[in-house]
Each structure stands twice: as C-alpha cells, then as structure tokens.
Specification:
Layout (H helix, E strand, L loop, with lengths): L10 H15 L3 E5 L1 H4 L7 H11 L10 H11 L3 H12 L6 H8 L4 E4 L5 H8 L4 E4 L14 E5 L14 H5 L1 H4 L1 H13 L1 E5 L6 H14 L6 E6 L13 H22 L4 E6 L3 H15 L2 E7 L8 H17 L3 E4 L6 H15 L8 E3 L12 H14 L3 E6 L1 E3 L5 E3 L1 H12 L3 E4 L5 H12 L1 H4 L4 H9 L7 H15 L3
Parallel strand pairs: 1-2, 1-5, 2-4, 3-4, 5-6, 6-7, 8-9, 8-11, 9-10, 11-14
Antiparallel strand pairs: 12-13
Helix pairs in contact: 1-13, 3-4, 6-7, 6-13, 10-11, 14-15, 14-21, 16-17, 20-21
Amino acid sequence: MAEQITMEFTPQQRNFINEFVIEINNGDAAIFAGAGLSAPNGFVDWKGLLRDLATEIGLDIEKETDFLSLAQYYCNSFNRSKINDKIINEFTTLRDGNINHQILSRLGIDTFWTTNYDKLIEKTLEKEGKIVDVKIIKEHFARYIKKKNAVVYKMHGDKDSPHEAVLTKDDYDYYNTKRELFSTALRGDLLSRKFLFIGFSFDDPNLDFVLSRIKILLEEHTPNHYCFFKEINASNYNDSKKTVEKNHEDYIYDQVKQKLKIADLKRYGINAIMIKDYSDITKILIEIEKRIKRKNIFISGAAHTYQPYSDDEAKNLIHSLSYKLAEKDYKIVSGYGLGIGSIVINGALDFKLNSNYRNLDDLLILRPFPQTQSGNRNISEIWTDYRNDMISKSGIAIFVFGNKQAPDGSTINSNGILEEFEICIKHNVIPIPIGATGSVAKVLWDNVNENLNTFYPDNTELHNAIKELGKENISKDDVITNTIKAINILQKA
C-alpha cells in the first residue's frame, strides 16, 4: 500500500474515532474551529494581533493574558480604526487551507462554527466543490441558498467587515443584542449535534454563556462533545533562565491547572481527547477520513465471460453481493463495467424496492465510462482521470472477474481492472479481490494473499476471510459472507 501517516492510537483516541465516525455517518457531527486551526497557515493569534497596539498604550504583551481587556483599553485610548486595519492586513493574504482544513472539508460535515476572521474554512470547502452558506451578520440568517452542502457560522465576524468583528469588551457586552441569532443558532446546534472543538482555547465568554444556558436547561443531561488537549510535557519546561526546581514547579502547576480545566469542561459535556503533539490531530483526522471512506465500496470488474462460473451463477453472485452491501448500509461505487455494472445496479435497486429505502443515491454512486472520443484529450487519459476520481472517494474496493474480448475474439485479462488496482493502492483504498471469480481478480488475489500484512491490518480473522475468497468451488453464500466479514472488520481495524 502507499505510504500513510500512521500512529498508535490510545484507547481514548480510538473510542473517539469510532464514535465521531458514527456521528458523521448519521449527519449529526459539527465542527467548532478556533485560532489554532488556522495557526499553521501563518495567521496571527490574539497575542500577535495586539502586540503593537499593546506597546502603543504602554503595556507588554508578554505580561498580558486578558487580551479582551487589552483591546478595549486601546479603543478607550485611541479608536478602533487601527484595530480594524490590523484585522484586514493580518488576515487578507490568500492562502490555501492546511491539511486539517482539507480533511475536514472532505468528511461530509455540513455545520461549521468558528471564531476566526479568516476565510480558510469556507474557501477550502468551496475548493472541494461544496456550495457554502456563510453567515457573518444577522441579516444572513434570512437568506436561503439552494443546494448548499455546508453552513459556516462566523461567530465573531469576518476580515472583510472588521468594524463588525467581535474583539473588544464592548463587543462582547453587546453580543446578544447585536448578534443574538448566532447565540440562538449555536444553542440549537449544541443541543442537536456532536461538536468537535479544534484549535479552540475555551476562553471565549460568548461560548461560556451559551454552554451555561444549556447546562441550566438540561441540568445533568447535556449532550457529549469533544475537544483536543495537548498533554503537559515535562520536557518542554527547560527555560535556561530558571532553575531546574522552578521549571519543575511550573510544569506541576500547569499540569494541575490543565486537569482542573478538563474536569470543568465535563460540566458542559465536553470531553477532552488527549494528544502528545498537535500533529496527532492530523493523524486522528486522517484515520476518521479513512473510516468514512470505508463505508464507500468500489466494485471493480468486467466480464466478457463469467468462467469459471455459469452466466446465471455469476449474475446471481454479483446481484446478491450488491444487495447485501446495500442492506448493510454501505454505499456502492461502480463504473458500470462490462457484464458487471447493470447487475450491481439491479442488486442495490432490489434492496431499495424490498426495504422501502427512500433514496437510491444513498446506496449507489454510478459513473458510466464515456465511450466516444471527443475533444482534444485521448479517451484512455479521460478514463484514467475518471477512475482516479471514483476510487479516491472510496475506502475499500472489491474486484470480481476482470476479462475482456481481444480483437481476435479470445478472452484476455482486462488492463482497466489492473489499472484500477494500482489506483487503489495509490489512494490507500484497501483491495478485496474475489479470486474465485478468476481472471484479473485471481491474479490480484494471488498477490494480496502472498502479502497479507502489506495490504491489510494485522487481524487473523480478516486474513482468513481474504484467504477464503480465493478458494476454488467456494459457494456463493461463502463468498458473500467472507466479503462482508472482511469489510466489517475493516471498519474498525
């Protein structure tokens, strides 16, 4: 498989991943992004934003912790125009979102809240092809954007309207007068969705107000949410200007304070997920994306002939496999391969009709290949791009049969199916070749069976299921049982 960013997750992290994947798949997940999400892009935090202004009013930014009051002091001494200019200049540079922005934009989450002034969240979502409804001022709540894929609530305003950005004590004092709709909407989302707070310090008085109101209303029944906390590490306390004893004292103090803060957040149902380094957040998000994609099953196959099966046996196998995947709530992705695609559709459609499933689009993504050359690009190049796009949206690929008719009338292995296997490896899509169906599927099964630890997680039950799929004369039911077993194991492996 292609090289991946991996880490050994703690039990707490693994439980969070499992739970948050479920929330995303159910459409109940939301993101609350703070300044830490944009920091890797070079945007300043509060301290960086106010450093020069603090100097102007005779304060040392390094000695200050109440930045809200500092901003207010500056406005009291001068006026707000310079703060507005700072917001425009510091956040105007157009940059692409970092890897965490990019992963979040691909997870299918449709609700984003942020206190950031930059546009990285909405721009990254748009780059991913999403239609985004950005709400910056209260008037935006009255508009309706058709076919939107995501809503971004900019709780503290936006760099393009710095005079309305929430930054000073006055802004916070009048927040529920000027921006009450944001508080109301956030309260509703906190009650109905599971939030992941990322890059957030929990020092925002507006959020404290909303959380406290929810706690009062629900008492001990507040919903569960999640956030990341970096563990206090003794190795970071080595200030050469301090004694060893003083460094250790600072370490113990900060450790105690962090534990108290984590315990306090539990009052609001916010559970801290501990990480050793901020890069662990990226690794956790990558794992979440992998799990999300593994609900999408790409079926690769082409069949001029169904040997070693009879036509009826092969069609029954593919139909039943497609039906079972739909029944297990997996989404099937197919390129409408020769002799395979229409049967895959029939299987998923059969499940829909038998179960009164509302929407076939939730069960099946069908991408028929263009068959006629047009334009300047070679048709084979178009097919390769097409395959890359389809497969990149999947997490697991099933390979069946894989043959075509040569110009001389003979049956040969399908090079398109071989290419799809290589694309799967490039995109870290896990292959499940059903070797018993012969042709390319048998070639691929021989490959993975000889290198099980390369292609799959270290799981004996999973490896045994893959081995079964290459046996000659395996029954249709056993093919389906072992395929579904392998897919189910991979959801949490």
